[in-house]
């Protein structure tokens, strides 16, 4: 039997007590209702995975401008709050804890996908040049509209409101998505941010928006209910953050400033600079979550064993195995992931993966 003993130690994360060191990583599933309210199956999907302890939801837009893909959920209207309340209640009933990930996609959007059908917004009017599936077929992401300085303050307010709405829905906290090529990450990347005001140019200026969002959310709901996700050097969404030294300089500054806010966790989507990851671990005063791109089953425990992480979030393994915790404890085989049903809607490939007791 594979030894994963370090994963089974309990852990205190802010206001919640976790039974082990596993968690559900955020994964887009494209199954919300047309108005952005979580669909009827969302409560079942998340509650099926409640044994993971900490469940970080799919990216959830804080505003109409924040939506990038079809059928993604929001957390900014009373209807959204009501929908997420059902999810939170179902997760809590099974003993789990729910953090809603706040994701503003910025330029990774298309007017066909948003409620208002307007041009996407971004730090600068530079297209991501990414292919995006729409109802009319594949289209390139358009040139976005540059946010004015005052509009940046409005977006910070949207994050604040979304965080308050998440707590009103019964969520245990939120995760700010500052990774994977989306709006906050775009401000960090020199090839997407050509601003000449206080939000562009220097390392400090490019980090300013991320820090201000984190500060606003922490002020609104408490730092002990606010996590943040970063992905240094991850070239998603057409971003290029420069060479290794440029990335290290940018993120050491950013993480150092965020550390002063005493947020409940730092979630790192890691692609290989272990020296940088070690510096995060040394600078960060609370929990560190690490998920590695392409990590296999025998690598799940590696970062916890090495002291680089406190919690190991699981993505595709948890998606296809609702009882992933039991499978790991008993060294049972995993279900295969059905890539064809990731984003197709309905129960197929969402809530119908078998458990060990229903195979």
From TrEMBL:
What Gene3D superfamilies would the database entry show?
Aldolase class I (3.20.20.70)
Which InterPro entries does the record cross-reference, listed alphabetically?
Aldolase_TIM, OxRdtase_FMN_N, Oye-like
Q: Where is the NADH:flavin oxidoreductase/NADH oxidase N-terminal domain?
A: 7-331
Keywords attached to this entry: Oxidoreductase
Instruction: Please give the cofactor(s) recorded in the UniProt entry for this protein.
Output: FMN
Q: Name one Pfam family in it.
A: Oxidored_FMN
Question: Record's SUPFAM superfamilies?
Answer: FMN-linked oxidoreductases (SSF51395)
Give the top-rank taxon of the lineage listed in the UniProt record for this protein.
Answer: Bacteria
What GO CC annotations are associated with the protein?
A: cytosol
Gene Ontology MF annotations: FMN binding; oxidoreductase activity, acting on the CH-CH group of donors, NAD or NADP as acceptor
Name the family the entry cites: Belongs to the NADH:flavin oxidoreductase/NADH oxidase family.
Q: Which protein, by its recorded name, is this? A: Alkene reductase
What is the organism field in this record? Saccharopolyspora elongata
């Amino acid at each position: 039997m594979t030894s994963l003993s370090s994963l089974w130690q309990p852990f205190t994360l802010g206001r919640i007590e976790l039974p082990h060191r596993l968690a559900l990583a955020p994964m887009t599933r494209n199954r919300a209702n047309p108005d952005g309210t979580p669909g009827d199956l969302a409560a079942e999907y998340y509650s099926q995975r409640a044994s993971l302890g900490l469940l970080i939801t799919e990216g959830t837009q804080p505003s109409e401008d924040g939506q990038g893909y079809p059928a993604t959920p929001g957390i900014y209207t009373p209807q959204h709050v009501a929908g997420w309340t059902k999810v939170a209640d179902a997760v809590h009933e099974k003993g789990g804890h729910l953090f809603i990930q706040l994701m503003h996609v910025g330029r990774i959007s298309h007017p066909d996908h948003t409620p208002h059908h307007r041009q996407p917004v971004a730090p600068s009017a530079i297209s991501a040049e990414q292919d995006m599936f729409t109802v009319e077929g594949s289209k390139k992401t358009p040139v976005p509209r540059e946010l004015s300085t005052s509009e940046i303050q409005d977006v910070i307010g949207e994050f604040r409101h979304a965080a308050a709405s998440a707590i009103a829905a019964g969520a245990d906290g939120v995760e700010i998505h500052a990774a994977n090529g989306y709006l906050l990450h775009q401000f960090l990347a020199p090839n997407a941010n050509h601003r000449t005001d206080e939000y562009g140019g220097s390392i400090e200026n490019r980090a300013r928006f991320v820090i201000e969002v984190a500060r606003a959310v922490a002020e609104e709901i408490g730092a002990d209910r606010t996590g943040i996700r970063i992905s240094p050097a991850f070239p998603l969404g057409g971003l290029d953050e420069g060479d290794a030294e440029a990335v290290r300089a940018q993120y050491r500054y950013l993480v150092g400033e965020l550390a002063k806010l005493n947020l409940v966790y730092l979630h790192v989507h890691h692609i290989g600079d272990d020296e940088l990851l070690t510096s995060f671990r040394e600078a960060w005063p609370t929990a560190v979550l690490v998920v590695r791109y392409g990590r296999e089953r025998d690598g799940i425990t590696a970062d916890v064993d090495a002291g680089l992480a406190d919690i190991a979030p699981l993505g595709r393994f948890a998606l296809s195995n609702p009882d992933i915790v039991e499978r790991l404890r008993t060294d049972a085989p995993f279900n295969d992931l059905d890539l064809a049903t990731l984003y197709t809607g309905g129960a197929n490939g969402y809530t119908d993966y078998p458990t060990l007791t229903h195979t």
